[in-house]
Design goal:
With 364 residues, the chain is α/β, with parallel strands linked by helices. It has 2 domains: 6-139 and 295-358, FAD/NAD(P)-binding domain, CATH 3.50.50; 155-291, FAD/NAD(P)-binding domain (3-Layer(bba) Sandwich). Helix content is 24%, strand content 23%. The chain is built from 7 helices and 19 strands. The strands form 4 sheets. Strands 1, 2, 3, 4, 5, 6, 17, 18 and 19 form a 9-stranded mixed beta sheet that branches. Strands 7-16-8-9-12 form a 5-stranded parallel beta sheet, with helices on one face. It has a 3-stranded antiparallel beta sheet with strand order 13-14-15, with no helix packed on it. Helix 1 (16-27) runs parallel beside helix 7 (338-358). The protein is globular and about 70 Å long. The model has no long low-confidence stretch (mean pLDDT 91). The chain binds flavin-adenine dinucleotide. Residues 12-18, 39-42, 47-48, 52, 61-64, 105-106, 134-136, 138-139, 181, 298, 301, 331, 336-339, 341 line the site of flavin-adenine dinucleotide. Flavin-adenine dinucleotide binds next to helix 1 and helix 7. Keywords: Oxidoreductase. Pfam families: Pyr_redox_3 (PF13738). One of its GO terms (molecular function) is monooxygenase activity. InterPro entries: Auxin_biosynth/cation_transpt (IPR050982), FAD/NAD-bd_sf (IPR036188).
């Protein structure tokens, strides 16, 4: 593999979104190595999957779609995703001889002379005619601010810090958040600890997986948000829907998913409600608070490009940034799923091939 530092396309991130884009760029005639490179901050293949908690298996995920061109030989449903998905990604990189450089963390992307971008990293600079950003969200956990957070003497952790329910055995844990991670972690922690579940909105349970109509409706809502430059929300945030799997039904039968509204503040040893419909004066002592409160897009390194819209997000037109056809975001907004990332990677590669050809530049 040639280590060219001036390429047509730099792909930032080597998870599902980055690898599917790399595969598609090669199919569009960009030369792996001299035409495009993938810069990935992790030490090993696997994207965020290599960092998830060990009890997350393919049986408890929604569904991990194959990367394009090489089927995922699905292991036993009980194999931890933290092992099986990274092994598949590693094989994928080898199979297609993808030019992935790691660990390389992109610090900032700048506009540079000659219609190029300068990609500043902890391993030196690259220059490129176009950028595909595929950095996911895992590295930007979001914890909302509540009064008293600094007073609480127990443990506060986010989904990214969670490892094993055994850490909480015999304790009381408050789980905050209404999404899939919150319900999964609550389900398993409640087998060894007492729990309280708090969410901002009452959950709406949906029996069985999302069908295609619901899926399309959700994607359309996220698309509309990013077209207007709003921050892309989560599926639950937009629809309020939670999928009731057999695992969840078992927890509901145990009474684990009896939900309380969001507390108003933390104290030294628990959480308190000052308002609400009948919850005023409620206090729950707690040993730990698990913030399963989601993520933000990891796009800080794009700040020098000034892409942020007044709505707090980046205004998008398909996979490209509106008004900037040389910058694509894959795995962002409507494509933040394994299947969405596959499709977006291919759309971005096609668009870049057309753009560079239209500019009279042939892919190398
Ligand atoms: P990631 O997998 O996060 O990869 C991003 C890569 O970018 C990483 O390798 C990281 O090192 C790199 N990176 C980040 N910043 C930089 C930087 N500055 N410089 C260089 N590299 C950088 N989706 C599904 O479709 N099915 C599921 O079952 C499912 N389950 C999920 C379960 C959990 C707990 C969570 C949190 C999400 C789940 N999702 C699921 C969503 C899914 O994980 C993502 O949509 C998809 O896998 C993300 O892929 P990605 O490539 O965008 O991001």
């Amino acid at each position: 593999m040639r280590a060219d530092r001036d390429v047509d396309v730099v792909v930032i991130g080597g998870g599902q979104a980055g690898l599917s884009t790399a595969w598609a760029l090669a199919r569009q005639g960009f030369d792996p190595g001299s035409g495009f490179v993938v810069l990935d901050a992790d030490d090993a293949p696997g994207g965020a999957w290599q960092h998830r908690w060990p009890s997350l298996t393919l049986a408890t995920t929604h569904r991990v779609h194959d990367l394009p061109g090489l089927p995922f030989e699905q292991p036993e449903a009980t194999t931890p995703a933290v092992a099986s998905v990274p092994a598949y990604f590693a094989e994928y990189e080898r199979h297609f001889d993808l030019p992935v450089h790691r660990p390389v963390r992109v610090r900032a992307v700048h506009r540079a002379a000659g219609d190029r971008f300068r990609v500043e990293t902890d391993a030196g600079d690259w220059t490129a005619r176009a950028i595909v950003n595929a950095t996911g969200t895992w590295t930007r956990p979001f914890v909302p601010r509540y009064p008293g957070q600094e007073l609480f003497r127990g443990r506060q952790l986010h989904t990214v810090d969670y490892r094993d329910p055994a850490e909480f055995a015999g304790r009381h844990v408050v789980v905050v958040g209404g999404g899939a991670s919150a319900t999964q972690l609550l389900g398993e922690i409640s087998t060894v600890a007492s729990t309280t579940w708090v969410t901002r909105r009452p959950p709406v349970w949906r029996e069985g997986p999302f069908d295609e109509d619901v899926g399309r409706e959700v994607v359309a809502k996220v698309e509309a948000a990013v077209r207007e430059g709003r921050s892309p929300g989560s599926v639950v945030g937009l629809t309020g829907l939670l999928v009731s799997t057999p695992y969840i039904r078992e927890g509901r039968a145990r009474g684990v998913f009896a939900r309380l509204p969001m507390f108003d503040r933390l104290t030294e040893d628990g959480v308190a409600w000052d308002s609400g419909d009948g919850d005023e004066g409620r206090f729950q002592p707690a040993d730990a608070i698990l913030w399963a409160t989601g993520f933000r897009a990891a796009v800080q390194h794009l700040a020098p490009l000034r892409l942020r819209a007044p709505g707090g997000g980046i205004r998008m037109d398909g996979t490209q940034v509106a008004g900037e056809p040389r910058v694509h975001l894959v795995g962002y907004g409507p494509s933040a799923s394994t299947i969405g990332a596959n499709r977006a990677g291919q759309a971005a590669a096609r668009a870049l091939r057309r753009l560079l050809r239209d500019q009279g530049e042939r892919p190398r």
